[in-house]
Amino acid sequence: MNAFQRFWDSDIAWSWRHSPVAIFGTVMTIVLFIGALGAPWLAPHNPFDLASVDLMDALLPPAWQSEGQLNYLLGTDSQGRDLFSALLYGTRISLLIGFASVILAMVVGIGLGLIAGYSGGRIDAFIMRVADVQLSFPAILIALLIDGVARAAVPQHLLDVIAFPVLVGAIALAGWPQYARTVRGSTLVEKNKEYVQAAKVIGVSGPRIMFHHVLPNVLGPVLVLATVHLATAIITEATLSFLGVGVPPTSPSLGTLIRVGNDFLFSGEWWITIFPGLMLVLLVLSVNLLGDWLRDALNPKLN
């Protein structure tokens, strides 16, 4: 109880309590995360179980329209799958890919940023020039290139098996330069401080200084960047899936659901693409709102 009270009385908790935007973003994020993680228990139907899908229920409108049914709250798609259940499962897949790609990008970017900032010289120049070259291309183009190369190098029957790791790797490799540049800048400042110089004097090794002393002091900006990057990763995954090079149709994410519904948008079945699009907007908006608040709360110059 004392630990919770100390946290509740801290500056960051005070900032959160007095920010309606942060509260709204937190509530929306928690609701969406619970819905995604609890999809097997919260979803009224399993949209990916072919035995439970009935084609006679295809293209049913939402329940509040005249032809709608109460057991299909948001209607059904062209295959008779419950759209509300598909949204919960699709959000879970989008979040899984988003979190995995952000974690991988953080590991690569933080490691290279620490090495570049602490070592300096040619190593720093080489890593930063690679990052600069990659940043000159749009992230979606880098992800498309990596995804295309992987698909061309793998046999056709294994494409669905490697779809998830390839997608995660493509998004992560497109995002690591941002972490590397942020960590390098913070490391350049930290390595000249007294505690680093004292560690060198007593004979602490370079890797230990980087990962045990410098790293904890440069994680503040990285945390903010990771929050914003999660929203970017989700959008990138949705874009790739919308273009048909993302997750397999048997495990569709929000991007795949939007792509499938786009074919029916102008034929009157608007709910098939509108609801997945709204879910994607709410998910990205809530994460971005949290990221904006976190950036302001952790930046003493803005307080």
Automatic annotation (TrEMBL):
**What membrane topology is annotated for this entry?**
Multi-pass membrane protein
The ABC transmembrane type-1 domain extends over: 91-291
- Report the locations given in the UniProt record: Cell membrane
Which terms are listed as keywords in the entry? Cell membrane, Membrane, Transmembrane, Transmembrane helix, Transport
Q: InterPro entries from the xrefs?
A: BP-dependent_transpt_permease, MetI-like, MetI-like_sf, OppC_N
Tell me which family the UniProt entry assigns to this protein. Belongs to the binding-protein-dependent transport system permease family.
From the Swiss-Prot or TrEMBL record, give the protein name: ABC transporter permease
